[in-house]
Amino acid sequence: MLTIENLHAEVDGAGGAKPILKGLSLEVAAGEIHAIMGPNGAGKSTLAHVLGGKPGYEVTGGSVSFKGEDLFALDPHERAATGLFLGFQYPVEIPGVSNVQFLREALNAQRKFRGEEPLSGGEFLKLAKEKAGLLKMDMEMLKRQVNVGFSGGEKKRAEMVQMGILDPSFAVLDETDSGLDIDALRVVGEGINSIMRSGDKGVLLITHYQRLLDVVKPDRVSVLAGGRIVETGGPELALRLEQEGYDTVMANA
């Protein structure tokens, strides 16, 4: 579903462009949840931003194929409409725009791109209520401005509701567990399972810690360090990282 081959990328900075990804190769099959773990500065968030098409990140080599199509030939909104969802480590606030308004416009824009009929107000509210229920979020929360005044856990739950409504075929989730307490972590993790553990969807789950993987059990785990994948294994690799640390595991890779 997602094939990354020898990917090189750099990011703009005060001192000029800085290479971050240095020959990263990875494949995520349909129906697979693939966790990416690694130390700070390894390039995990850069990978997410490059896949999503964030400005300021330049691909200098390699390729990415998404569902058989050249991902880099698509603009960010086209990637989203094709089925790619990017979950942010720090979801942004959008003052003056309600979640309901934002989500309905986003969904219908994607449906238009795919040649589908837009959902009516009633149809959308029914869908939103269903997906909000999965994340134990009251509909009143969705009537508020996007993430304005939300706690960290509320922002992440709202983002998972967004994922449920947009119903992507592939999700790149960048440290979704960041800032979550134990209860919110379980709710968000179970939401990911409910939304993405169906059919032939795929997930690239970026995280530092094992705790999210106790809820969202990955099929495979890869270690990203120095801008490239240094080891890939099963769920037991995440447990080794938790017990031994990155330095020990990478030294033995």
Report the C-alpha radius of gyration, rounded.
18 Å
Report the sheet with the most strands, covering strand number, pairing sense and barrel closure.
6 strands, mixed
Number of separate helices:
10
The share of residues in helices is 25-40%
- Give the overall form: globular
Number of strands: 12
- Terminal-residue CA separation: 26 Å
- Mean pLDDT across every amino acid position: 90
Taken in chain order, the helices and strands follow as: EEEHEEHEEHHHEHEHEHEEHH
Q: Stretches where pLDDT falls below 50 for ≥5 residues? A: none
**How is the largest sheet built, in terms of strand order?**
6-9-10-3-11-12
Strand content: 25-35%
Computed structural class: alpha/beta
Your description of this structure?
The chain is an alpha/beta fold and 253 residues long. It is 39% helix and 28% strand. It has 10 helices and 12 strands. It has helices at 44-52, 76-82, 99-113, 121-134, 139-142, 152-166, 182-196, 210-213, 236-244, 246-251, and strands at 2-11, 18-28, 33-37, 57-66, 69-70, 84-87, 94-98, 145-146, 170-174, 202-206, 220-225, 228-233. It has a 6-stranded mixed beta sheet, sandwiched between helices. A hairpin with a 6-residue loop joins strand 1 (2-11) and strand 2 (18-28). Helix 4 (121-134) crosses helix 6.
